[in-house]
Structure formats: structure tokens, C-alpha cells
## 1
Amino acid sequence: MDEQQMYWYAITPLDVLLFREAKPFSPGESAWAKGLFPPFPSTVFQALRSTLSKDVKDLDFMGPFLLSPQDRLCFSTPKDLVAVKWGLKTQKIDEETEEEEPKEDNLDDTASDWHRTLRLQLVDRTDEAWEHLLFDEAGLAPMVAPFRELVEEENRREFFCRPYPWITAEALSEYLQGKELTDPTQFQEDPWNVQIMPHIQMQADKRQVKDEDGYFTEVAIRLKPGWRLVAGISIDLRETVVRLGGEGHRAIVIPFTLSDADQTLLNPKTNTTGDFAYLLTPGLAVKEEAVYGVYPCDWQSILAGCVSDRPLLWGGVSQIRRKLVISCGKENQERTASLISLGSSSPNSEAKGDEEFALLPQRAFVPPGTVYIFNQIPSETEALLPKPESTGNWLTSFQKLNYGKLLWGNTPL
């Protein structure tokens, strides 16, 4: 597929943004519609696409990414990256008795006072620290913190923590080159605040909330001052205003010039070699439900390790139907509502009743920042997407929108 010239744009929200996570919810008491940020590429693409006539087709798109007040691009921090900071060996557990206990590492703690970074490593099964722990020999080896590389002095030692969740383009480039990162200012906290918005639907001609579907709470995103989104599209746009996200909230779209270093980093033709891959945009390992949802099944034999997080869910009307299931394995038959696939049932149950559609996530995307370590490089090195033979037109759309873009790097020597 030929690459088209990309034009880049800074997108500045004029208000809060609403990007609902795909998990279905039922409006009612204590119902929450969870938010998702940054949004999926297709959401921002459609916002930019809305400024064009309908006959403009076959556009390429990349993004969205975060853009700092200093015009620095920020991406998801690689999920195999851990930070190292100094700390006292012990901590007080009782101020009165001054009783102390050894201080432990905390990989759930994010900090900015660290002085170097390391990477999670494949577990060494010959190490005595792991000799009494069992792992699935047929699966991937666990990725663990390299605790033996920590330095210990008389009254202090190094501890593991996590860097902030967003990394600058400059630092990401150094990371892909296998360099050790030592500057905490190259990482950013989430540059947005969460705003809770209640939704109330009143009964007609009454001053009462509807009993059903009348109330739910939604999570809105408000970017911090100076922060924007940035995205590229293969058509020249003038400065304009678009609707972005739910409820018609608007954003200003202004042309933006990428630095040469940023263009090199994002160029798919210059980042296809190395021994590990970093996922830049949401990827799709498989179309259907599968055992290996974070990576394709055919990577099982060539993949050494993987570090990821919970999937990003994309919703819609699924192929799963709701039926009434009668459990036949108990003395007293118990009727329960359950989700079962069309044409399938448990051997101890009987499905009855009319089929109804279910609002369930259709696909689970692999989150950006996921890292894959290979024993052997796969045949497809540009994107984490299903194979063409198992797809339809939607795959072409994902390719044009640069879903699952992989950046390749070399592990430190």
C-alpha cells in the first residue's frame, strides 16, 4: 500500500471531551459510562474528515498523539521500562517505638526523582530465586524486574519505581536505540483532569427522573493548559473548527510542522529493523476471540516475551445473542439469563426464548506502549493487524488509519 504525504495538525479542545469506553452499561442508579483517552484513531480521523466533501476517499491517517505546550510529541511509555531511584534501606512503622522494617520496591509507584532506567527482562529459569516457581513451558516466559542490577550502599540502596506514563519523542527514539534514559523530565504525567458529568432524563410533563434509563454518570476529559492532540492526514486542510467526541464538543484544528527527528521516528520505512517492537498505536492481534489476544497465534513460536496491559475495548452490536438458559444439572432447575453464542450451549443446559442482540465490545485492541521481544523477526514488521486472508474491508480501513503501527528497536548490549 503506497504511503501518501502526511499533513500534520494540532487539535486544541475548546471544552471538555467525551470519549466513552466501549464497555456496555445500563443507565440507572449508580451507572457509570467510563471514559477512554486518548481516543481511537478512527474517532479523530472522522472529525477531520467531516471538513471535507463526501467524494474525498482513500485518505491516510496517523495519530492522535499528545502535544505538550513546548510542542513536544508524547507517546505511551514503553511498558517494559522501569525507573531506579535511591532510598533508605528501612522505613519506620511506628513513630513512638521507632520500629523499622525493610523497605520494598513498588512497581505501582510512579515517580520523578529517579536517576536511571532499566527494562524488564525474561526470567532466568536457572536463577535460584525462581527455582521453586513454576511457569508454563509452552507459554511465554514471564518478564521480571532485573533486581540483581540494583546497587546497594551502607545506608541506602536503589529501588524500582515507574516513570510517568508518557514519554517524549526524543526519549522514545533513544529507547529504541537501546540507550539508558536518565532524564525524568522526558516523561510526563497524564496531562488532563477528569470531570464527572451527571446525565438526567426527566419524565415528560413531570418533575421526576425517569425510572429506567433516566440517570447515569459520565467521565469527561479536560486537557491541561497548553496541551493538545496532534494527528496527521494525507490532505491539506485549512485552519478550522471540528466536532470531536460525544455531545458535539468542538476543537480548533491548526496546521502543525513536525521536526525532522519526529518525522524520521514516525516514518514506517525507517523503523522496520531490530530485535524488539514497540506498539505506537492501538493494535489488533486477532479478529476473533483467541487464546493469544495480545499477539497473533503465529507469533507464538518466534516471540520470546511480551509486556502489555488491559485491552482497549471497541464496541457495537456483537454476534453474541442473549437467551434464557435453563440449568438442567441441579435438582431444582434454575433459570438464569446468560450470554451464549449462536448455535452453542452447555451440555448441562437448555437454551430457550427469543434471541436478542447484545451490546458487547466487538474487538479488544492491544494498548499502545506494548513491547514485543523476538527470537525471530516476523514476516509482517510494519503493523500489528490480522492477516489479510481472514479479513474484509475493515482491515484496509485500519491499515489506512495506521492502527497497530510497530516501531522497531535494539535491546541494550
## 2
Amino acid sequence: MTWIKDPEFVRAYTKGMDSGHKMGRPKGSQKDIHIEWRVHMILWAAQHAMQLEGDFVECGVNTGILSLAVCDYLNFEKLADRKFWLFDTFRGIPEDQMAASERAHAIGANETSYEECYELAVRNFAPYPNAKLVRGKVPESFANVDIQRVAYLSIDMNIAKPEVDAMEFFWDKLVKGAPVVFDDYGWAHSGEQHDALNAFARSRGVKIATLPTGQGLLIKP
């Protein structure tokens, strides 16, 4: 596991970890929540996407734990021909989009892990002028953006409906070979997402790989 000590990985991982989030830790804590493998997979997908034409997209940003790591790792501010579109409510999971089976876990996550963070995210991404924060619920927040081609898609919205909506919207925009990483695909509490995303994948004749990290990975054919 030489990658875990690679200075570029360590720097990128730290960038996301120091974003001011309160995932798995109290507000203001500097505790490392040890998601190295999940970030490793995100960075692998982002590096792969650099071989492709198109913008980067993340749906479910919060303070930028994953996307800040990508921006740092790729020196995204220097990629003048690309934008990184960052979609989120920046205040947690919308209750009106939760399925009945998702409510208990998602409401608990809102109480413990999420809060109003838009201004914090704006500050975090200020060094990256080509990172575009779009506030609102998915899919409504897609209405006023001009995204033609997508080389990288990260989906981490914690509930099924907006994740499937995002896949419906971006599927035809994803270029051949583009990676899609689902952050919550394989966890025990993510059954609704798992089943809904699998149904979407079947409708397109593809399959999602389950990773040991709990993530899902799909490559656009």
C-alpha cells in the first residue's frame, strides 16, 4: 500500500479532511475518520477521467471532503478547459425526497453530520475558480447549467431519488469510459439506493461493481 504514504495522496486527503466537516466527528474536531480507501478510489477515478474530454461533476458535496481532494490532487485550478460542477443543498438531505425506508437513517444523518455549510464550501473552493458550486435540490438545480460532456461523476446524496435523477440527467452526457462513483452503494443502510441504482443500470444494459469500501463503480460503455 505505497499509495497511502504518497505525498500527493496525503496532501489531497488532508485537504478534504480539513474542510470543516462533521462527518463521524463533532463540529470543530480534527479527528481523522479514516476514509483513505474511499478517497483513493475517488482519486483513481478522477485521474482516469483526465484521459477523457469533459467536465467533472459531483452531486453531494457538503464541505468538499471528496471534491477538494480531487481538486488538490489534479491541481484543478490549472485545468482551464474543464469545470468541476458541485451540486448540493449545502444543508443536508431533503426530507421530502426520502423514501420511507430511508427516513430514520437520513434524518439521523441530518442531525449528526450535516448543517448549513454553503459559505464554508465557497471559502474552501475559492482557490479553484473553475469549481462551480450550484445550490439546490437535485434534479431542480440542473435546470440552469450548461454541461455538454461529463468525464467524471461522483454521486453521494445518501438517498435514492436524487441519485437516480442525477443518473437520468447525466447518462447521455457521460463520455465513453467515464467513471461514475457511488459513495453509498454497498452499505447495509443503503438498500434503497442499491436497488434503485441497480434498476437504472439494468435499464441501460450495464452493471455496477460493488467495492469493498461500500462504494459502487460504473464505467460508461
## 3
Amino acid sequence: MNAKEFNREYAVGSRFIYLTGTAETGGKVVRTKDVARDLEKSGAVVEISLAPFFVKLSSLKPAD
């Protein structure tokens, strides 16, 4: 999913599970803090409420 599609589907402040490791460890619930952006070399990223603060969209799973 690119940033334009992500922004169309999810509003700023949406809740996600930030997948930090394997399926056994699960993840942390976070909120988006800004719109997603497409970066040339890194792909699409979005700012979240916890460190590392900017993550790839592929590391997020909708919480709702």
C-alpha cells in the first residue's frame, strides 16, 4: 500500500498494532500522528506515537 491509499483509508489518529517482532511477541498499540508519506528509497512511512516514531506501513496492522 502506498501513502496515498493509506491516507484515503485511515485518518490521522487511527489505532494500529505496531508489529515489533515475531507473531509470538505481538506488538504495541499506537496511533498515527500525521499523514503517511512516500519516500523515494524507503517506501511509504508514517509517524506514530511511540519510538521509533517513523515506521513503514508494512509494519502496522489495524487495531479496530
